[in-house]
Amino acid sequence: MSESRANAGGKPVSEEIELSGHIIDSLVLPRAFDAIMNQGGEFDVLEIRVGKKKDETSFARLRITAPDAATLDAILTQVQELGAELVSQKDVATAPAPRDGALPPDFYSTTNLNTEVRLAGRWLRVENPEMDVAIVVDRAQGRAFTRPMVHVKKGDPIAVGHDGLRAIPLERARENEIFSFMNSAVSSEKPKKLAIHDIAREMKEIKARGGKILVVAGPAIIHGGAGPYLGALIRAGYVDVLFGGNAIATHDVESALLGTSLGVNLGSGLPVEGGHKHHMKALNVIRTAGSLRAAVEQGILKSGVMYEAIRKDIKMVLAGSIRDDGPMPDVITDVLVAQDEMRSAVRGVELALMICTMLHAIATGNLLPATVKTVIVDINPAVVTKLADRGSWQAVGLVTDAELFLRELCLALSVEPSAAASSH
Description:
By secondary structure, this protein is α/β, with parallel strands linked by helices. The chain is built from 15 helices and 19 strands.
């Protein structure tokens, strides 16, 4: 901690910071001003240089003054999340974890932005950026990497304080495109077809360079008759990772075996007599077979999203919840194990489609770096807004139903759904 921050109660303290990059058009500088004032601090602009062309960056040096050290620390925490660097920069400080699963009191809590630590006078990129975790600094190997609190071991060298730490803010896109910086506005009246075709174009580009696409899928995909479209995307190679819960797996199997979802006939839209227990029958079939994969291998499960995912051998993580029936044998019921499986699976993902699933989407969003482009689809505007505002810097929100979105996406990608889709 710098000398200016070592002063305690009653005496104003100050620190100088620098911000550089596209800090004007990406609203980083005004957000820094707001953060300082909202926490009860003041600032003086000591130097500012404004880029006059789109490809020119800007620079600002500020002196932040706060009534006490605690307030200044709170301000510095917020402005560092915007990419601010301390002028009196030192190497990163560390302190040992006091026990397994616990952190030193002044640990640095990460954002989802790319982050760097300063070691021996040079900046080093932190491996596997993720929000709300700690940074372990291995000085001997010259490495720094994120580690969730629950996995911290006693004695781990944890980054603390503010010195030697900086987040790298994303820059606003230089041209107008759907995933432009902070594009999180949500409206049910936006033209969806154009947006979906832009998303399809992005998916094609990602697959052309060997990138990975993640789909976080909710059971409404099956209820609304959109399962065949998602299955077609998987079959065509546009899905590399699939996240979901017990519900989508259960109702997908129900639709494949019995033609219903929640006991409603997917062809006619009418309830089926005794349909309320169809999902239990589906669960029983798979549990008797041993697993979803075993059901496919035994010829029991011959269609559906789960069938296509297993046939394509993509990475699939089904995370359970307290309300699950069954559950499916493939569902991970230990939330920490499921979280680790998801954390591992998102490595290298460039685009995430989150379709009609609020809780799984929030969980996934917390694991994704800010550089991952995110599409949030739900019929409820409040859900789309909630997800789009949860820290993703490149989020597109679409208020629509899963069937419309996935059908149009298949059309834009020239992907043919199975015959079952047209019958729905």
